[in-house]
Design brief:
Largest sheet: 8 strands, parallel, barrel
Shape: globular
Structural class: alpha/beta
CATH superfamily: Aldolase class I
Strand content: 15-25%
Number of strands: 8
Strand order of the largest sheet: 1-2-3-4-5-6-7-8
Number of helices: 11
CATH class: Alpha Beta
Amino acid sequence: MKLFIDSGNIKDIETLCALGIIDGVTTNPSLLAKEPGDYKENLKKICAIVKGPVSGEVISTEYEGMLQEGREIAKLDEHMVVKLPLTRNGIHACKTLSNDGIRVNVTLVFSAAQALLAAKAGATFVSPFVGRLDDIGQTGMDLIGEIVQIYDNYDFETEVLVASCRNPIHIVDAAKMGADICTCPAVVIDQLFNHPLTNIGLDKFLKDWEKAYPSGK
C-alpha cells in the first residue's frame, strides 16, 4: 500500500520524504491556505521533493471554472493531480479532464455510490473520508471495504485513496482491506513508528552493551 502525506507544509514533507517511505502528497485549500508564500510555487516545491503524485484542488464549483483551474494545476508540474469534489459538475469535469489525459483525484467521497460515479468518470484516485464518517457515528472503514469490493468486481483502474485518516488503526485496516493508498497528516505517520516494546527492547540492548563494553574501553 502506498503512503501519502496530507499536508502543505514543506518542512514536514521534506522530513518524511527523506526516510524513503512516502509515495505522494495530497493538499486541499485549507492546508495550502495555512502556509506562507504563493500556493502554486509551494505545489511546485512539493512536487520536486516527493517526485510522486501531488494533488492540488480546484476552488471553482462550476464546470467551466473547474476545467480552467484543473488545466492550470496540471501544467504546474508533471506530478500534479487535479483534485475535484464529488459533485455533478465535479464528475463532469473529471470525465473531460480524464479524457484529455489529466489525472484526477475525486475528493469528499462519503458513499460507495459516489465512488462508483468517480470510477465511471475515469478518476485516477477516489478519496473516501473515513475520519469524518466516524465523527458522525458511522464506521468509515466499512465504506473502504465496499469500494474495494465494487472496484474489484469490475476491474476499475481507479485507486482507492483512503483520506481523513486519524490514527494508525485506520491505516492498518485499510491495508488489510486492500486499499491502494492512505493519506495522513505527518503526526499520524509519525505514530506508525511507535511501540513501547521497541523502546524498551532497544534500551535494554544498549544498557547490556554498555555493561560489557564501557565507553572508552
